[in-house]
Design goal:
β5 and β6 form a beta hairpin. The protein is 23% helix and 42% strand. Strands 1, 2, 3, 4, 5, 6 and 7 form a 7-stranded mixed sheet that branches. The protein is α+β, with helices and mostly antiparallel strands. It is globular and about 45 Å long. It has one domain: Nucleoside Triphosphate Pyrophosphohydrolase (Alpha-Beta Complex), CATH 3.90.79. It holds the Pfam family NUDIX. Keywords: Hydrolase. Belongs to the Nudix hydrolase family.
């Protein structure tokens, strides 16, 4: 089975930092960019705008999104996640996190790889860095 999702990296060019959100499970917590599933009938861009608002309270438009590409994560022999990746710039620093997160932080681009837990986020972040260069 293939699940379709989006992943959005938010960059603030004024402070030159990336936004990361903290997820806490029963077992552990970790930092990640905005992520979310694509609902029935949605295109990735619409899912992206919806997830940005749900997870940060930030409103955006299609013209403010830069599509980076795609990345597939094989979870197991029965499940793969096909992610469409985006980059968005904002000059706002204050956000409102959703109930699915316990914290947020803005961090320098060079420190992001040291903070990320999931290998797939490491890989997608490298794709983002190439676009920022």
């Amino acid at each position: 089975m293939i699940k379709y999702s989006i992943e959005v990296w938010i960059y603030n060019p004024i402070i030159r930092e990336m936004l990361l959100l903290k997820v806490k499970t029963d077992q552990f917590s970790f930092w990640q960019p905005i992520t979310g599933g694509i609902e029935n009938g949605e295109i990735p861009e619409v899912a992206c705008i919806r997830e940005i608002f749900e997870e940060t309270g930030l409103k955006t438009t299609l013209t403010k999104l830069l599509k980076i590409g795609h990345h597939t994560v094989v979870m197991n022999e029965d499940l793969s996640i096909f992610k469409t990746l985006f980059l968005m710039e904002t000059k706002r620093k204050d956000i409102r996190i959703s109930d699915e997160h316990v914290d947020f932080m803005w961090t320098k681009v060079k420190t992001v790889p040291d903070i990320l837990y999931w290998q797939s986020n490491q890989e997608t972040f490298q794709m983002v860095v190439e676009k920022l260069s």
